Amino acid sequence: MHQRRLNLQLATVATLILLSGPAPAQMQVRVEPVVLAPIMQQLPLSGSVLSPRSSNVAPQESGLVKRMAVDAGDRVEEGDVLLELDAELTRLELRRLEAMHEEAQLMYQDAKRLADEGRRLIGNKNISKSQFDSRLATEAAEEKQLSQLKLQIQMQRVRLDHHTMRAPFAGVIGFKNTEVGQWLGAGSAAFQLVQMDPLRVQARVPERYYGEVQSGTRVTITVDAFPGDQIQAGVDRMVAVSDVNTRSFVARMDIPNSNSRLAPGMSAHLVFSLGGEDSKPVLQVPVDAIVRRADGSVVVWLVRDSTAHSVEVAIGRRNNSHVEVRSDELRAGDLSVTLGNESLRAGQNVTAVGN
User: Fold this and answer.
1) H/E element holding 55?
2) Do the Cβ atoms of 62 and 285 come closer than 8 Å?
3) Bond preceding residue 44 cis, omega within 30 of 0
4) Which of 8, 146, 248, 319 could form a disulfide with 204 if both were Cys (CB 3.0 to 4.6 A apart)?
5) Interatomic CA distance for residues 10 and 16, integer angstroms
């Protein structure tokens, strides 16, 4: 009876061992520490090369085109003559006003002489009060007439100067819309003037990066025309008006173009360097420590006291080797599993091996 009872107990133990399965084997995994440090992320975007200033240059006066000084494609500096309108009638009108001014000046001098004489005579009562007042009124009227003619002469000189069109800024003539002998109305576009130095590179930044792309953010720019050349620039301005259709914001960078290699309309490829040494330190794990589950969640496996533990995390910025992670259960110095983490089970005994 005793032997039968012992056999039954051994059989029960064996059954329990079979049901519980083999004890988990000690697994060797590779680990790297969780670090707290600033992170640099590279954000690639596409953009365009634009001119920061493009103007349809028009005359301020109407007239017949007398001389063309430039053609399409010409480079001009600020103040260069673009064209001249026939200004003969305006010039003659200026001469007429100048002659009237000379005459008015003589009239004023005579009226002033009589008024000064009246001021001396009125003290001795050698002139009546009405005669004195009349002389003063004549002096004032002639002085006013002289001032009006001075203003008319100034206006006419400005009009004469406006018959010569000049470049408002340095650039290249994009198109020419008139020719010698053509009547050109005031405000009618005669040329398109496009600034070429500096040029502007513009790109749309997704909404999620709006707080990270700021004035001064470093950008590496390449263009298809010169694929091997890199242009280093900084963001000059973020336009704080979103495109509601794309949920994006415009970043602008002005770049020098003194050698005229670049032209408006070229496509540009930009890489924004986000974060860096001056940014706020964040928790990071190696890229290989990230495990994505079928339900969409993201976990990082940690080794604590030779035991595997999974921690669900939210991921942020990423560079070539590390990913920003956020979780209340993570701390700097934790050992994250970078090799062997796909087959781990919670509570499994593991042996951690450094990279």
Assistant:
1) strand 54-57
2) no
3) no
4) 248
5) 10
Computed from CA positions of residues 152, 153, 157, 163, in that sequence, does the dihedral angle turn out positive or negative?
A: positive
Pick the closest to residue 343 from 19, 24, 17, 22 (CA basis).
24
| pLDDT digit string (tens) for the chain, length 355 residues | 444 443 444 344 344 334 444 444 578 999 999 999 888 888 899 999 999 999 999 999 999 999 999 999 999 999 999 999 999 999 999 999 999 999 999 999 999 999 999 999 988 888 899 999 999 999 999 999 999 999 999 999 999 999 999 999 999 999 999 999 999 999 999 999 999 999 999 999 998 888 888 899 999 999 999 988 999 999 999 988 777 778 889 999 999 999 889 999 999 999 998 876 667 889 999 999 999 999 999 999 999 999 999 999 999 888 878 999 999 999 999 999 999 999 899 999 999 998 6
The size of the chain, in residues, is 355
Q: Which domains does the chain have, with CATH numbers?
A: 24-39+281-354 (2.40.420.20), 46-52+199-275 (2.40.30.170), 58-86+163-194 (2.40.50.100), 88-161 (1.10.287)
| 124 phi, psi to nearest 5 deg | -95, 5
Question: Cα–Cα–Cα angle for 46, 49, 54, nearest 5°?
Answer: 145
Beta-strand pair 191-194/54-57: antiparallel
Residue with the two structure tokens 């006419």: 156
Token pair, residue 268, equals 């540009």
Helix (H) or strand (E) holding 92: helix 88-123
Under a CB-based contact definition with an 8 Å cutoff, are residues 58 and 187 in contact? yes
Q: How far is CA 239 from the centre of its chain?
A: 7
Q: 196: which DSSP letter?
A: -
Which DSSP string corresponds to 259-272? T----TT-EEEEEE
What is the 3-state composition of the chain as percent helix, strand, coil, each rounded to the nearest 5? Answer: 25, 40, 35
Q: Is 218 helix (H, G, I), strand (E, B) or coil?
A: strand
